[in-house]
What we know:
Number of strands: 7
CATH class: Alpha Beta
Radius of gyration: 17 Å
Low-confidence stretches: 1-18
Shape: globular
Structural class: alpha/beta
CATH architecture: 3-Layer(aba) Sandwich
Number of helices: 5
Mean pLDDT: 87
Strand order of the largest sheet: 2-1-5-6-7
Number of domains: 1
Order of helices and strands: HEHEEEEHEHEH
CATH topology: Rossmann fold
Distance between the termini: 59 Å
Amino acid sequence: xxxxxxxxxxxxxxxxxxxxxxxxxxxxxxxxxxxxxxxxxxxxxxxxxxxxxxxxxxxxxxxxxxxxxxxxxxxxxxxxxxxxxxxxxxxxxxxxxxxxxxxxxxxxxxxxxxxxxxxxxxxxxxxxxxxxxxxxxxxxxxxxxxxxxxxxxxxx
Length: 156
């Protein structure tokens, strides 16, 4: 009998984290529709950029913001429960205190994948989502960078 060490035992913690994050992002992007919680009609805001980016890449996306009515000509929904269909993935661009409430709503709505964009992270929110068994992307790359590097040209 020969001892064959596990390949993953020889790779760095950083590489293991990257592989895991890549798998998490793949699962997030595999969803047929994505909600952007914190979407904004202000084109200078990150929430607007994330929503527009998903649309430009041909993704079905729903903007969620209780204080907006339309973004890029599309209706905006006040919360996840108001969406016309259940979504498996949400991108969150809200202040950390709001993110904690969004996580509770996501759990109640059956969301499976949550991508906390830079600045939206809250240790309490992350812990709650992870404990609920959700795929949580945080403290890493932003949606805009990933979408720009996945090799699919945007719609024109």
